Amino acid sequence: MSMNELLTSAIDTIYGAESAAQQTRYQQAIERFRSHFGDSEHLRIIRAPGRVNLIGEHTDYNHGYVMPAALDKDVVILARSRADGIVNMHNVEASFAPIQFPVAEQVPIGPVGDWGNYVRGVVQIFSQYMQKLPPGMDLLVVSEPPYGVPRGAGLSSSTAFTVATAMTVCSLAQWTVEPEEFIRLCSDSEWYVGTRGGIMDQFASVFGELGHALFLDCRPTTAGYYRYQSLPLPHEANLLVVDSGVHHENARGEFNQRVAACRAGVGLLRKMHPTVTHLRDVQGIPWQQLEGLLPESVTVRDLQQQGLELGEIPGLDETTALRVRACCRHVWTENQRVIHAVDALESGDIVGLGHLLTAAHRSARDDYSISCPELEVLIQSAQQVEGVFGARLTGAGWGGCIIALVPPHAIATFQQNVQDFYFAKTGRTANVFPCRAGSGASVMI
Ligand code: NG1
Fold this sequence. Notes:
Radius of gyration: 22 Å
Shape: globular
Distance between the termini: 11 Å
Largest sheet: 8 strands, mixed
Bound molecules: 2-acetamido-2-deoxy-1-O-phosphono-alpha-D-galactopyranose
Order of helices and strands: HHEEEEHEHHHEEEHHEHEHHHEEHEE
Low-confidence stretches: none
Number of helices: 13
Helix content: 40-55%
């Protein structure tokens, strides 16, 4: 088969009903690669999707439960090897400056916020793991709207980019890495950039399945594997995503503070329960027996004075007050909600699932404090639409998106009312789109 025939068949398999528009997108991308790098000999094309999280927020780095679904929006990379060991990366969007650096086992990090840091992270982490260097490469990144993953929207655009880059590096270097190790290395590559996140996003991006959500237990077994299960999304209701268009600048620092609050919780609980290493370990203990062991608020300095170290967390200040009790309560109750959500999906209980989403939102807002005024306006407007089963913020928080479980007859009203209400209250435009759960990352050709 020719390159074009292979690509056409891969696009049909991955995108199904959307494949005609995607054929055009990919052909245009190949044209751009040619005009940028001269020709398209030996071209590889790799894609990785973003994700929504149905439920299970900020539980992954506590070894808890999550339920994401891969999106049908993705990052595409066109790539080929270079003989000179240089990574030469361009983006079709002019706002991203080109990146160039030599492959190495220690790649110096660029300025904060530089998109090239994700690529540097991948090259460093995978080279160290393989104990050899990949070839240099010419790369073209394509993630424009409407098919790309919206950025800063809590839909894991950075993970999609990281996974696509890592798959590209492995493909060009002809490295075989076991999927779960691959996921861990992708997560480490994002740690290189500075966020102390878990493995949910990478898992969804790699293992996503068309029309399915993924229930994942983020606690690895002793052999380093994870327990997960694909669950068909309901037919009786549609999952709609509403992008607030807002992304708060302090999100990274706030995120790391929540990680710190959870680690503080572990340290304090360990005094009574010495085997605890993650909040997941106290899931079997009634919350009432735990909360008395956890202070409402404690500073990093207070913890240090008690001999409690939180490990390396970028940007943490000694005077930062951590809301330990409320954060741990969110994680504890959220894990339970995920388990109940699995039951609800399996038994077709859409009403029950809707209630769980709404309860998860309350906990994220009140206990984990990750909402913001714009998201609250969206949640309020979603809840006012008759027939809506439930709604919650999705992703890390402080902006980004909400999801809502909406019956088919209410979709048009939902879109209209939510957009009107949001505009009236904030002067901003909300982007509403259906979550069509897509396939996981792949090498297309
Ligand atoms: P987003 O929404 O993509 O920033 C982050 C973490 C996840 C998880 C969620 C909260 C990364 C790459 N992603 O996701 O692991 O902790 O927040 O549930 O750190």
